[in-house]
Amino acid sequence: MLTDAERRDIESEIAASWDKRAASIPALRALQAHRGWVSDEAIRDIAAMLEMSTDELDAVATFYNLIYRHPVGKHVVKVCDGAVCWILGSQNLMQYLEQKLGITSGGTTADGMVTLLPICCVGDCDHAPVMMVDDTTIRDLTPGRIDGLITSGFEVGG
Amino acid sequence: MEPVLTKNFRKGQPPMSLREYEAAGGYQALRISVREHSPEEVVRIVSDSNLRGRGGAGFPTGQKWQGLPPMDKSALPRLVIANLDEMEPGTFKDRYLVENDPHQFLEGLIIAGYACRSELAYVFIRGEYLAPPADTIERALAEARDAGYVGRDILGSGWNYDVHIHMSAGRYMCGEAMGILNAMEGKRAIPRTKPPYEVTSGAWGKPTVVNNVETFCCLPHIILNGPGWFRKIGKAKDVGPKIYGISGRVKRPGSYELPMGTTLRELLDQAGGMLNGYQFKAALPGGASTMYLDDSEMDVPLEFESLKEIHCYFGTGTAIVADHTTCIVGLTHNLQQFYARESCGWCTPCRDGLPWIEKLYRDQEEGRGQPGDPELLMELSRSVHGNTFCALALGAVVSIESSLTKFRSEYDDHIRLHRCPFKDQH
Fold this sequence. Notes:
The complex is a heterodimer of chains A (about 160) and B (about 425).
Chain A: H1 4-15, H2 24-35, H3 40-50, H4 54-61, E1 75-80, H5 83-87, H6 90-101, E2 114-119, E3 131-133, E4 136-138, H7 143-151
Parallel strand pairs in A: 1-2
Antiparallel strand pairs in A: 1-3, 3-4
Chain B: H1 18-23, H2 28-36, H3 39-48, H4 61-66, E1 79-84, H5 93-100, H6 102-115, E2 120-125, H7 134-146, E3 162-167, H8 177-184, E4 208-212, H9 213-225, H10 227-232, E5 241-247, E6 254-259, H11 264-270, E7 280-284, E8 293-294, H12 304-309, E9 318-323, H13 328-342, H14 348-365, H15 373-384, H16 392-406, H17 408-417
Parallel strand pairs in B: 1-2, 1-4, 2-3, 5-9
Antiparallel strand pairs in B: 5-6, 7-8, 7-9
Helix pairs in contact in B: 2-6, 2-9, 3-6, 5-6, 6-9, 13-14, 13-16, 14-15, 15-16
């Protein structure tokens, strides 16, 4: 069941879109802003609002990288594995994070705090290596900077 | 050259507000366009400027607009889409432009709408660009709407033009013209058969013009200073100011506004040269989908025409520099991982070929390379080349072919040593 607030947000996305189907990505994003991820049940509920079949909407949801079809942690840490970050050692930083958090890329910490994912080049190559914590880009990464973020519980604001 | 696209940039400060932008001469080009020119005249001015699209393919902007069909009431509204998907690895120029001067971009977007007789524009923004630059654009758009530059009866002309923002949810294919149309329609971003081209039948079947952000940013300057002025900027064959980028182990990685036709050597000089202790080995001159240039090609003008003459691409003009510690096989593997992961899955050569290629590269890097692998990679690359609906698959494999031609010995070393010879260095 969608909450009233979720339903309202999706309805306002539909109102701002060309047609109902065109609202599918904004609606998925809106739902995810509330819940952090998009469940099978949510796909069914949103599809009904958009007058799409659940398969049609799931085809969209599973295609786009930033729509999560599995539960994620409170924070999603996305390590850029683009070419420039790779040249500057992003793979070592990913390993460092995996080791510090005790999970592998794609996993979520047992306390549900952090999900670790790779991400395509985020367009900040003059500050490589970079990663994103939720919607915030962290530039000029070093192991020390990662330690600081872990200590602060990845609270970066914004 | 005098800064053009970056003239209003203020380092370390928020971008100009609408009032500040107007005080610096902003929105004059829109006034001139709407009050002194017909839409057809604006199209002709842009055609005369020889502006080529800055998204990577370099298609002449005026020619693209001239491809719009005759006005037909059943095919309204015409749409303009600003492509701010910017998912090409190594590319960060459009973010730089909109974060530092959102009104320049919006003014260009509005001028394009007038020229194309459009009533509705979408700014298609990659999902990761939420804050900033999406919020920067939203603030600027609200200011432009309040000032009457967007909305109904713009500058008393009777022309209506609205601008919407579409936040994407991330997929490389969204940056491709047909992919972006499907994404806008709420579908998987997969290619479409061409023709019809998007100018005839684009999003929701409406005539649609898709241009890159940097392309829009050039428009106010072309209107204000004239096409002849624009054509005079440039050091070789292509024209106009260009936001070049450079990253990797250089002293000052970043974006630099330079005349079209700047060479890699000059760009590297702008960035202060290589970091101490590092030597230049190669560069991908315009993002991941371009061919490697080696040190013998540092004086080739970085532009569409000159690079085409040496069978290379210009792409986005943002160079990725590999230094002497960078393994070319490893870097190409990184690129192939990206393409294999991001392939939209529509065409078999791309969907199935790229993961095979990626696996072969992994074999080289992990010491399982076999004699004959380089030849197999070349064969696989050629079977992707030209056998897919969209051009992104072609971009995916050009680094394979150019690395095999120019850095073959690195492949042979991996196979002979059963390991990556650079492993302890990266």
